[in-house]
Amino acid sequence: MKFSDVHIGKLSKGDKRAFLLLYDNYFASLTIFAQNFGLSQYESEDIVQETFCRLNSNYNLPDNLSAFKSYLYTAVRNKSLNYIRDEKRRRTNDSVFLDLQDDLLIFDKIVENELYRQMHLLVNELPPQCRNIFQRVLKGDSSEKIANDLNLSVETIKTQRKKAKKLLREKYSLVYRSLYTFL
Length: 183
What we know:
Helix 2 runs antiparallel to helix 3. The model has no long low-confidence stretch (mean pLDDT 81). 84% of the residues lie in helices and 0% in strands. The chain contains seven helices and no strands. By secondary structure, it is mainly α. It folds into two domains: 88 residues, Orthogonal Bundle (Rna Polymerase Sigma Factor, Chain: A); 85 residues, Orthogonal Bundle (Arc Repressor Mutant, subunit A), CATH 1.10.10.
């Protein structure tokens, strides 16, 4: 059965049969029409369904078939163009967000590298024996192994390690404050 002027009136009153007839008569052609805007099958079907749902709640429909068809196609065209516009904005926003995220990652790496560089410089400023012991501790050597290799007592190694940590903490606080003002 073809959708006609009579069915428009019934559709305006919420008649489900008229709605199903409209759906059967126009869903495929409106979906193809929406695809002409470069939309996928899924996107086109979604837009047509949204248009039909809006029809169901709109009781102010044109009363002749030709105006009604024009109304349907115009509604699908507008929804398609709005969808394309919104997708373009979403992609632009996503792109800006990803660029910002990349910039933050690069900045984090710069700060991390600068901190490592500063720490390396600070470790090199330690007294020679203190520096040697601390560098071996950083490599994972135990106090006992370092003591055996250097012919020192374990207590001396622990004392030198504490001294290195104290000196680094004092110097690092100056570096941290200067770096913090940079940020």
